[in-house]
Amino acid sequence: MNPLKFLNKNTAILKVFVFAASAYPALQLLYSYKTAQLGINGLETLIHTSGFTALILFIITLAITPLRRLLSYAMILIRNQYGKRLGDWNWMVKLRRMLGVFSFLYVLLHFNIFFYFEMDFDLSELQIEVQERPYILVGLSALILLFPLFLTSTDFSMRLLKKYWRRLHRLMYPVAVLIAAHYLWLTKPGVYDAYPYVLIIFLLLIFRLLDYLKIIFKREDDGLIAKR
């Protein structure tokens, strides 16, 4: 039995699980907020959890294409009977859009929690905060760049924009840099929790660059093979 064929045919079931898993942190935050179970520093919990969830979902979204390529190559190396073609891993691509949308929504939630509870939706206060804490501007820039990607995350947008859709969605890469910079910048001195996630983003960007330049892989009918 080919499990990848099964996954490709039953992507709708996977989407239900991914949707539930992606929505769970927000629902948990809402429940904790309504029942006053956010802990001693409730605002910090709200801001950190929403931001960290956005980061994880963004990394997963960014990792799908490299992971798909690596898995295809691995199946060729071990001479597996299935999984050699990129099409065998199409189920991963079908989940990418949902993960990307959820990532944007958590970034938006992250910013609005900060803007409401810290700034009371006061733009003048936000301007002062941006001047004093530039990492806020970096994070806000990432949110602004993600917005057109969110708006064009539909099949209709792909058909309408055609080749320009792919060019527009390359904004993912500067967004990745901004997100990494935002997370690293706000980390307190001597705390290294952000470093593994920033390193993962850096490696994914390097991989995508090398793949774009066709330095790592070249395409063949039966999948991908490494350049020698």
How would you characterize this protein structure?
By secondary structure, this protein is mainly alpha-helical. The protein has one domain (3-226). It is 74% helix and 4% strand. A two-stranded antiparallel ribbon has the order 1-2. The chain is globular and about 60 Å long.
Give a brief description:
The protein is mostly helical.
What key phrases describe this protein's structure?
two-stranded antiparallel ribbon, mainly alpha
Q: Give the mean pLDDT.
A: 90
Task: Classify the helix fraction into a percent range.
Answer: over 70%
Gyration radius, in Å: 20 Å
- Number of helices, counting only DSSP H or I runs of 4 residues or more: 10
Query: Helices and strands: which structural class?
Result: mainly alpha
Task: Summarize the SSE layout with pairings.
Layout lengths: L2 H7 L1 H24 L7 H36 L12 H28 L5 H10 L1 H18 L3 H7 L1 H6 L3 H15 L8 H18 L4 E4 L2 E4 L2
Antiparallel strand pairs: 1-2
Helix pairs in contact: 2-3, 2-4, 3-4, 3-10, 4-6, 5-6, 6-9, 9-10
